[in-house]
C-alpha cells in the first residue's frame, strides 16, 4: 500500500468534512439572523419586544397540511340532554340548536363551565377545545382539535341570507345573564395529516412576520403563541378542506394567524378576551 498516497487522501477527506461542518454552522447562524424589511434581525426583534426565544414553542419541521371534509349534520347526532334541545340543520352541514330552557354558565369561570356544557350537550363535544369569548356578540367559540392542535376557521361567514360558521367551530350564544340560549356547530371528519417537503416557519420567524407588517410593535405585549391549523375550503361546496399549519399569536387584545408555510398573516376580527 502507498502510505503517502493514503495519508494524502485522509487529509483531504478530513478537510472536506471540516468545510462541510463549517458550512452547516454558518447556515444555522445565518438562519437566526434573518432580517426583515427594515434590516432588523429576528434576534433584535425578540429583544425589543421582551420575548425570550428559549420559551417559544416549537413546530416540527416535517409537519404538513391537514385535510378533511365537512360532516353531514343531523338532529339524530344529539344523544345527550336530547329532550332539552330543539335542533334543525342548515344545508345538512350546520347543526342549529335552540335550548328549551337556558343553561346558566359562570361568568367568572366561563372557560370551565362552557366546556362542561359542550361535553354534556353538544355532539362530538370531546373533540373541541375552548377558544374565545366575544364580549360584543356574547358568543363563546370552541374549535375542533387534531392531535392537540386547534383547527381555527373564520368565526362567521355570510352565505346568501343565512349565516354559516367556520367548518371546525361551535358558536354558543349567551344572553345578558350568561345563560346559553342556542348554539351552532359544524364538524370535520376524515382528518388526515399530509407531510410535505416545505420547511415551516419557526415561532421566531412568525413573530418577525408580524413585526415587519407593523402588527407587533415594541410597546405591545405578546400574550400567547400556539401551533394549530387553519381551515381553507378547496371549493364552494367545502367537500374537501385543506388546512395549513399556523401560528396563532395574541398581541395585546388582537389575534393573528401566521401561515407556517408561506408566512401570510390573517387578522382575526374577534373583539374578545381569552
Automatic annotation (TrEMBL):
Residue intervals of the Regulatory protein YycH-like domain: 34-261
Pfam families, per the entry: YycI
InterPro entries: YycH/YycI_2 (IPR042274), YycI-like (IPR018604)
Protein name: Two-component system regulatory protein YycI
Native source species: Exiguobacterium profundum
Amino acid at each position: 500500500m502507498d502510505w503517502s498516497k493514503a495519508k494524502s487522501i485522509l487529509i483531504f477527506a478530513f478537510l472536506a468534512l471540516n468545510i462541510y461542518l463549517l458550512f452547516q454552522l454558518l447556515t444555522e447562524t445565518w438562519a437566526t439572523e434573518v432580517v426583515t424589511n427594515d434590516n432588523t434581525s429576528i434576534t433584535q426583534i425578540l429583544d425589543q419586544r421582551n420575548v425570550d426565544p428559549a420559551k417559544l414553542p416549537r413546530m416540527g419541521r416535517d409537519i404538513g397540511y391537514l385535510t378533511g371534509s365537512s360532516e353531514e349534520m343531523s338532529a339524530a347526532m344529539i344523544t345527550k340532554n336530547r329532550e332539552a334541545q330543539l335542533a334543525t340543520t342548515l344545508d345538512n352541514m350546520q347543526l342549529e340548536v335552540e335550548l328549551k330552557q337556558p343553561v346558566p354558565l359562570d361568568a367568572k369561570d366561563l372557560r370551565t363551565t362552557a366546556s362542561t356544557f359542550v361535553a354534556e350537550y353538544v355532539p362530538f363535544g370531546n373533540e373541541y377545545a375552548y377558544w374565545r369569548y366575544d364580549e360584543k356578540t356574547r358568543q363563546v367559540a370552541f374549535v375542533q382539535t387534531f392531535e392537540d392542535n386547534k383547527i381555527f376557521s373564520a368565526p362567521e361567514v355570510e352565505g346568501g341570507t343565512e349565516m354559516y360558521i367556520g367548518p371546525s367551530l361551535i358558536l354558543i350564544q349567551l344572553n345578558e345573564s350568561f345563560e346559553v340560549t342556542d348554539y351552532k356547530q359544524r364538524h370535520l371528519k376524515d382528518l388526515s395529516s399530509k407531510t410535505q417537503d416545505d420547511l415551516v416557519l419557526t415561532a421566531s420567524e412568525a413573530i418577525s412576520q408580524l413585526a415587519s407588517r407593523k402588527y407587533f410593535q415594541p410597546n405591545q405585549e405578546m400574550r400567547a403563541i400556539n401551533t394549530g391549523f387553519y381551515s381553507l375550503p378547496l371549493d364552494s361546496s367545502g367537500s374537501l378542506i385543506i388546512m395549513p399549519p399556523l401560528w396563532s399569536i395574541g398581541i395585546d387584545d388582537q389575534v393573528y394567524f401566521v401561515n407556517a408555510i408561506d408566512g401570510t398573516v390573517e387578522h382575526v376580527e374577534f373583539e374578545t378576551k381569552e
